[in-house]
Amino acid sequence: MLVPAAIAARNDTINVKVVRAAIAGLYECVLSEYIKDETRETLQEDLGLEIGEIDARFAPLWAKARVLTPVPFDDPQLLKVVKGDRADLPVFATGLAAQTDPLLGPLPTKFLVSNNSTDFTPGWKPFGLHFVTAQQFWHQLERGAKAKMP
Amino acid sequence: MTTLTSADIAELETLAQEVKASRPHAARLLRRLLRSAARPAQETLLTTTEAARILGVSDQTVRNWADSGWLPSRRLHRLGRRMIPESALRSVEAFDQVRLTPKKALAEEDAVELVRRHRRERARS
What we know:
By secondary structure, chain A is mostly helical. Chain A is 51% helix and 8% strand. Chain B is built from six helices and three strands.
């Protein structure tokens, strides 16, 4: 989600809206250094962008997001969730870190937002972490606020 | 605009006190000026329409978010319109101001596959 948001030419794509909502503080965004590095590396190595410009683009998000250390991911139960693919473990383990974080732990709902529906099947809720696409998450953001209306 | 020091304010308060009996209107004016000088700089407030334009959502969504407390808001008076502090959205505008132009064009759905591939290569190395 971060990579397409970084290179989007317009502000009205769903990925950009979700990032901008995080920057505006509409929800608590959790990242890890792993996710930040992966975003930087993909943009740098595969799309030829400079690290300085990538960090300049994301500076407001890096400043706003809560950067957590992924939970240890040597538990075989976690490997089942990512269908045996160890490459996805650090991302899932970052999501799980939010469950035990003292500030975020008590929050009722936590989402792992990814457009990679193949590896993070939307609708699945392993360990209480809701897998959603950026589109579904945006819908939740809009609907969530309405649901609180009297 | 001139900034008043605390010494300036003290001197003008003394003056207002001194002229209170002889020139009450001037004393009241002085006090009003002093109160306004002492007030902190007012924050720029946006209407919900302006905030909605920045966030790319409808007015109603901004009002809902403000009602839920997800977005900070103020009312200028009890029945007044809800206003959004511009400072709450300043970082969003900072994000918009930096545009990245990749060397090759990439569709959003292709970006997903690109990240997947990169993640697997990273895990192998």
